[in-house]
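TASK: fixed-backbone design
INPUT:
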């Protein structure tokens, strides 16, 4: 693979990525490009291969097969200069507790050629009141903010966020989203993994759904699952208690047609059918549908090979 970095080249380029553990594929043939300046959300259930994929991209885990380029270089051979261009917020971290927040950030800032201002970063993660507090005395959510601060102190071109808002309260999550949007405006490329679908919807330009080590869908957030997955669903019970469910682009017309007696669906005196509801599928509904379908297909494939 051509490892030459150009402004037009994607920040991340993956072809045929595979990682095996004991002959079992944790990541199985992933192809993906992530553009510079893009925020990409990698979604999937636990054990789907998200963390393994990200660890390969970060240079912390060697791949079994495939080609990978991150900021124009193979992460398996990335040196200190390359590492200074990326920021990482791990799913869990254990920072030394004996240093204060400011001391820890000032220490890490010295590792980078063009770090952010320490006090600016402390303010951006909402820890001004805790700047002189030892990390050991912080709450779990506050420690998580320190992790985020350490990930951005080096002014990275590419930022890996692995479940970044775990332990955040709702207000802290909103503040973090504002920070991520500011980083994006500066041109930072962001690869985000999260179990919060609203977070992916708020921050992501595109999303990929990984199930069983395979990417089953990659699309802009608003197009994930395709147009059919977003068609509203009308549900109701008829006078015999039979459950009905219809997907329709015109739910209001369908609901109106159910009010008079029609094919025994409902008697006029009942007004509207029992249990009537109109559902517009959310991102979570679409995601769960993709995961469920992919899991069913994988199970069928395994049974066919048995």
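OUTPUT:
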């Amino acid at each position: 693979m051509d490892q030459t970095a150009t402004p037009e080249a994607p920040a991340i380029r993956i072809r045929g990525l595979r990682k095996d553990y004991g002959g079992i594929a944790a990541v199985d043939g992933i192809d993906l490009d992530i553009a510079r300046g893009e925020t990409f959300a990698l979604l999937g259930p636990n054990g789907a291969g998200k963390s393994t994929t990200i660890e390969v991209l970060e240079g912390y885990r060697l791949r079994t097969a495939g080609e990978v380029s991150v900021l124009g270089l193979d992460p398996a051979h990335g040196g200190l200069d390359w590492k200074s261009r990326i920021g990482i917020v791990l799913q869990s971290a254990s920072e030394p507790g004996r240093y204060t927040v400011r001391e820890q950030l000032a220490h890490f800032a010295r590792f980078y050629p063009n770090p952010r201002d320490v006090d600016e970063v402390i303010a951006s993660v909402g820890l001004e009141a805790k700047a002189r507090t030892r990390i050991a005395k912080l709450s779990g959510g506050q420690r998580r903010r320190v992790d985020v601060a350490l990930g951005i102190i080096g002014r990275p071109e590419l930022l890996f966020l692995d479940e970044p808002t775990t332990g955040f309260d709702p207000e802290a999550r909103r503040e973090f989203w504002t920070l991520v949007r500011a980083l994006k405006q500066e041109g930072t490329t962001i690869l985000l993994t999260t179990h919060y679908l609203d977070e992916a919807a708020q921050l992501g330009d595109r999303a990929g759904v990984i199930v069983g080590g395979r990417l089953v869908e990659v699309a802009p957030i608003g197009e994930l699952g395709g147009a059919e997955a977003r068609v509203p669903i009308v549900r109701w019970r008829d006078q015999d208690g039979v459950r009905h469910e219809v997907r329709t682009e015109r739910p209001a017309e369908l609901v109106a047609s159910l009010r008079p007696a029609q094919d025994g669906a409902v008697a006029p005196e009942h007004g509207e059918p029992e249990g009537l509801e109109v559902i517009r599928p959310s991102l979570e509904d679409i995601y769960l549908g993709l995961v469920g379908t992919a899991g069913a297909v994988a199970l069928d494939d395994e049974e066919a090979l048995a």
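COMMENT: The two ends are 37 Å apart (CA to CA).
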